[in-house]
Design a protein that fits this description.
Blueprint (H helix, E strand, L loop, with lengths): L6 H15 L1 E5 L3 H12 L3 E6 L15 H4 L1 E4 L2 E5 L3 H9 L3 E5 L5 H5 L3 E4 L16 E5 L4 E2 L5 E3 L10 E2 L2 E2 L18 E3 L4 E5 L6 E2 L4 E5 L2 E4 L4 E6 L5 E2 L4 E6 L12 H20 L3 E7 L14 E2 L2 E2 L2 H8 L8 E6 L2 H9 L3 E4 L7 H11 L1 H6 L4 E6 L7 H14 L3 E6 L2 E9 L3 H5 L8 H6 L4 E5 L21
Parallel strand pairs: 1-2, 1-6, 2-5, 4-5, 6-7, 7-9, 20-23, 20-25, 23-24, 26-28
Antiparallel strand pairs: 3-4, 8-11, 9-10, 12-19, 13-15, 13-18, 14-17, 15-16, 17-19, 21-22, 25-27, 26-27
Helix pairs in contact: 2-6
């Protein structure tokens, strides 16, 4: 028989998976994105930040974007370093630093497959973020629809709703007018007076008066509009266009504010942390696969369509799983060769997979289901897969959820439903066993794997033996037939 899975190796994989769950890619490395990065970093997440090749962040003293041209920068007590390779990224995050890369299109998401993606570019429109980029995708501000582009939008507009999590719909639309600070809005901004290369004549933290020279756009001087402290200013050498934001003046004149993240960045960072924790807590890490592709040879007709207690046999498990809490299964897959069952599965919220060659046996259906779950498996967003069949019409949702929850709590590799010493279906498999599931042939099902690893099997006891009964012949449908 097959050798038991090495539990030390399994625990090592679990540790690696746990570490990967804390990997977040933040698109953008400006001051607001950096406020998010600080909050997540301090809560134990590993952070990669992407930026454009020539950053245009004005609040440079509280942003990680300067690492792109300086090589290293510090925001409060956290260091960000520029990285050029996957090896450098892994080295940076493993020693508690924030990895910053010049990667305008965020290609690193495809390479690293993080558990979290945060779009904090603040472009006011979606530059390419998709809800499928990671198990948890959060976007900041207008331009995104929660539930379509991402799982959650965090409000970025100053005011009563700043930092709020939006799970359905849009953030407040962009007005083009900055929020008031010290009673000033647009007047706070330092804007380029012409097209050209920017050069500052003051530094962040300096006190200035209205009308004072603060820099040049090419040869054209730029003046402050109000009294205050220079809170942000572009680095020298950036090519600017007339009217482009090049800095800002804070009328509150608190110089220390120039070197700590803003109340706005902290609030948005808190909203992102809330969104991540809520989504991950509510989002289960087990998939359900229902197999309904058999040929019903012993029944002499398609047994799955035969009425049982007032509805087709196959619909019983669809009805039961429809009544389960959304915290039980992350995704539901239905594999069948029958059009009616596939259409019904879609109506019940299943991803349906057609089995066009049922003669290859139950293993073929299992392989098709694993292909449908490939993205989740690659991302590490699944801990296990529960397999059930459509010819157990008396199986209850209580038993299904009891199996999955008991298996999670028991932390074993495998689980099965049992009654009075007899094991049956459904059965649940840790992702450690995916290679063995892929190795099944012909009519081999998951039972072969359970038999090979008896020490790894959790058993959920049901008090009703009929729940385990599968219908193979017409006689099996009679009450008390087994």
């Amino acid at each position: 028989g097959k050798q038991p899975i090495n539990r030390k190796m399994s625990q090592k994989k679990e540790k690696e998976t746990m570490e990967n769950r804390g990997l977040a890619v933040i698109k953008g490395a400006g001051d607001l994105a950096s406020g998010i990065a600080l909050r997540l970093h301090r809560c134990g997440y590993q952070i990669i930040m992407t930026e454009i090749a020539v950053p245009t962040t004005v609040r440079r003293t509280v942003a990680f974007s300067p690492a792109v041209y300086l090589g290293e920068t510090q925001v409060e007590d956290v260091t960000g370093v520029r990285c050029h390779s996957l090896e450098e990224i892994k080295a940076a995050v493993s020693c508690g630093r924030i990895a910053v890369i010049a990667d305008e299109k965020a290609e690193i998401v495809k390479q690293m497959k993080p558990q979290i993606v945060v779009d904090a570019i603040l472009a006011k429109y979606n530059t390419g973020t998709s809800i499928t980029d990671a198990p948890t995708v959060i976007a900041i501000g207008p331009g995104f629809c929660a539930g379509t582009d991402c799982h959650c939008v965090v409000e970025s507009k100053r005011g009563h709703y700043l930092g709020r999590c939006i799970w359905d719909g849009l953030a407040i639309a962009n007005t083009g007018v900055p929020g008031l600070i010290g009673g000033y809005g647009l007047e706070r901004l330092i804007r380029a007076s012409d097209d050209g290369v920017f050069r500052g004549t003051v530094s962040i933290g300096d006190q200035v008066k209205a009308g004072e020279l603060v820099g040049y756009a090419g040869e054209t001087p730029i003046y402050a509009q109000i009294d205050g402290v220079v809170r942000g200013l572009l680095q020298d050498g950036v090519l600017v266009t007339k009217g482009m934001k090049s800095g800002d003046v804070d009328p509150r004149c608190e110089r220390k504010h120039c070197f700590t993240v803003s109340d706005k960045a902290s609030s948005i960072g808190g909203g992102v942390l809330e969104a991540i924790l809520c989504h991950q807590t509510a989002n289960p890490r087990t998939a359900l696969v229902v197999l309904a592709a058999g040929d019903s040879r012993r029944f002499e007709s398609n047994k799955l369509l035969v009425p049982v207690d007032g509805m087709p046999m196959y619909r019983h498990i669809l009805e039961e799983t429809a009544g389960l809490s959304k915290t039980v299964f992350r995704r539901k897959i239905l594999v069948s060769q029958y059009e009616e069952i596939l259409q019904s599965g879609t109506a019940y919220g299943f991803t349906t997979v057609e089995n066009r060659d049922s003669s290859l046996g139950v293993s073929h259906s299992i392989h098709l289901a694993l292909e449908a779950l490939e993205q989740e498996l690659e991302q590490g967003s699944l801990d296990g897969i529960c397999f059930a069949v459509c010819d157990q019409p008396w199986l209850t949702k209580k038993t299904i959820s009891g199996l999955v929850n008991g298996w999670k709590a028991g932390k074993t590799g495998l689980g099965t439903v049992s009654c009075r010493g007899r094991d049956g279906s459904p059965a649940v498999f840790s992702v450690d066993y995916v290679p063995e599931l892929k190795g099944l042939l012909g009519d081999q099902g998951g039972r072969a794997i359970l038999s090979a690893h008896p020490q790894e099997v959790y058993r959920y006891e049901t008090g009703d033996p009929r729940e385990l009964e599968d219908v193979d012949t017409r006689e099996d449908m009679a009450p008390g037939s087994r």
